[in-house]
Design brief:
Elements lengths: L2 H53 L11 H11 L2 E6 L4 E4 L17 H6 L4 E7 L6 E13 L2 E12 L1 H51 L14 H56 L9 H29 L8 E4 H18 L3 E5 L7 E4 L1 H17 L6 E9 L3 E8 L6 H4 L11 H6 L6 H11 L5 E5 L3 E9 L1
Parallel strand pairs: 7-9
Antiparallel strand pairs: 1-2, 1-5, 3-4, 4-5, 6-8, 9-10, 10-12, 11-12
The chain binds adenosine-5'-diphosphate.
């Protein structure tokens, strides 16, 4: 059963019940009102006629003399008039000829007569035994003092009930016709009203179906501010969020597969070279003293590259999977900078690069950091500075206080510099300004990506400034 059918059934059911209750109640009310009115009209007539009897205008003992008057009066009032003697003998009846009265049975025990005996009016409704029609009867007792004692006469008025019933029936027909008409009108109105309610629900359902089928750009028009409007805008919000999530997921997926592609490409180069040199050696070059050592050294170099690449890959995947646990503590920053510089000094010396450390006012400052990770950052930055600085250049590692709570660490070189358009991307994985040169100097393309991750895990940010031909400066801050 659809929602609309349910709504309709409810509306129409309620209307039918209401109309039925109203009609039954009002018919009953009208019927009893008509009965009461008929009775009171009848008793008024009884009263009028009995006044004539009491006043002597219609003497009970000479009714036959007034036959025409009485019959005319009865006819014009559409009434039946009966006069009954105290012992029940019918003296006169407007519906019965005078000469037939002798056969009319004694009326003493007619309910209305019995009812009037205690004074006032006796009223009864029944089918007449005399004329076989339903009548409403009203009677009263008139006692007249005569010279020869008290004389009792009952005056009875009756009217056929059929005309009251006809009126009642007419009124009932009108009431029920109005009832049926209102049911029809309500059915029509509620059919439209229920459509107004269910149409937006159907729209929502079809939109929800479309969204489920992947049509995430589908939106439901929100036209009202009621519960349905709220539902529609919630579904719209949900579709919007889902859409965003999916865009995000797709982007992640793309980044992931790009990375995978890069990794296999990066691995392939050193493996192929290694294989090449080893094969050449095996093919006989091993016995050629002019090249064998050179080839072995080259194979060794590529094995080293492979090793560096794998180490960086392991490192970055540990960082990105969240597997890398950091252990922060306050530690002297100057010590660490000096230690790393000492370790890198031989490499710098090899290229005749002057490497200086300037810790200035920070000599005794402690920074909040993971010592091993921070060391890795400094090694990567210094390694790059040495790699991308020509022989005879210089590198400065320095620390400066920044405000009250921070220390800024900087690695500056007088190297090749980085063209402006690359500055925004050098922290991406495998991004290199000059691929051949990077490979030549043993770069993996992952060093700065690792640096960025670690610095960010310390709550800082890595920045770079560079002028081509003049040199580069990498900076980040630590909590003090
Ligand atoms: P790589 O292993 O290739 O050095 P990195 O992620 O460490 O990878 O650096 C990315 C690129 O940024 C390098 O290939 C190089 O082009 C550039 N770069 C990094 N440091 C410097 C620097 N000190 N001077 C000039 N170029 C730099």
């Amino acid at each position: 059963m659809t929602l609309r059918a349910k709504l309709l059934a409810t509306y129409i059911g309620l209307t039918v019940a209401g109309v039925a209750v109203f009609s039954i109640f009002s018919s009953w009310q009208i019927k009893s009102y008509l009965d009461r009115r008929a009775e009171s009209a009848l008793t008024a007539h009884v009263e009028a006629v009995s006044a004539l009897v009491r006043g002597g205008e219609l003497p009970a003992d000479s009714l036959a003399n007034h036959e025409m008057t009485i019959r005319r009066m009865a006819r014009s009032l559409n009434l039946r008039l009966t006069f009954i003697r105290g012992d029940g003998l019918v003296l006169f009846d407007s519906d019965i000829p005078l000469d037939s009265l002798t056969v009319v049975e004694n009326h003493l025990h007619r309910p209305e007569i019995e009812g009037s005996r205690s004074g006032g009016f006796g009223v009864n409704r029944r089918e007449s035994a005399t004329v076989h029609e339903e009548f409403l009867y009203a009677a009263t007792m008139v006692v007249r003092e005569t010279p020869h004692g008290a004389d009792t006469v009952y005056v009875r008025v009756a009217r056929p009930f059929s005309d009251i019933q006809a009126l009642d029936r007419q009124i009932q027909i009108i009431i029920w016709a109005i009832g049926v008409l209102s049911v029809i009108i309500i059915a029509f109105v509620s059919s439209r009203a229920s459509r107004r309610i269910t149409r937006p629900i159907l729209e929502i359902a079809s939109a929800a179906r479309a969204i489920r089928e992947g049509e995430l750009s589908r939106r439901i028009p929100v036209t009202t501010k009621d519960e349905i409007g709220t539902l529609a805008s919630s579904i719209n919000d949900m579709a919007g969020k889902l859409g965003n999530d999916i865009i995000q997921l797709k982007k992640l997926e793309r980044v992931r597969s790009e990375f995978l592609g890069n990794v296999s490409h990066e691995l392939r180069t050193p493996i192929f070279s290694l294989q090449g040199f080893l094969e050449t050696l095996l093919d006989g070059a091993v016995d050629d003293p002019a090249v064998n050592r050179d080839f072995l050294e080259k194979a060794h170099k590529h094995a080293g590259r492979l090793n560096a690449l794998l180490n960086d890959l392991i490192e970055i995947s540990r960082i990105e999977s969240g597997e890398m646990k950091m252990s922060f503590r306050f530690m002297p920053v100057a010590d660490l900078l000096r230690e790393v510089s000492d370790e890198m000094a031989p490499a710098a010396a090899k290229k005749n690069i002057r490497l200086t450390v300037d810790t200035g006012e920070c000599t005794d400052d402690k920074v909040y950091a993971d010592r091993e990770r921070l060391k890795q950052v400094m090694i990567n930055l210094l390694d790059n500075a040495i790699k991308y600085t020509e022989d005879g250049g210089s590198i400065t590692v320095s620390a400066r206080r920044e405000g009250t709570g921070a220390v800024s660490v900087e690695v500056a070189d007088t190297g090749t510099g980085i063209p402006g358009q690359h500055l925004g991307r050098i922290f991406e994985r495998f991004y290199r300004v000059d691929k051949d040169r990077s490979r030549d100097v043993g770069g993996t393309g992952l060093g700065l990506a690792i640096v960025k991750h670690i610095v960010e895990a310390h709550g800082g940010a890595i920045r770079v400034e560079s002028i081509v031909g003049k040199g580069s400066r990498f900076m980040f801050t630590l909590r003090r």
